[in-house]
Specification:
This protein is an all-alpha fold and about 60 residues long. The protein contains three helices and no strands. The two termini are about 20 Å apart.
Amino acid sequence: MMHLETTCLTKNSYQEEKCQSQINALYECCNAFYKERGEDARTPSCPKPNLLRLRMKQRGQESS
């Protein structure tokens, strides 16, 4: 999933607004990952849980 986000950002000169759906999907996936494995789980594709919650809140996504 992270690869798709990175490809979109690279293709669009790192204009995040052009990759909203990919970024939202990544954050939803990461949220599910932490729900399933706990907040101590780690993956290079996801921000840490507290940062993920902040980013989702900033984007208007629910993190519950």
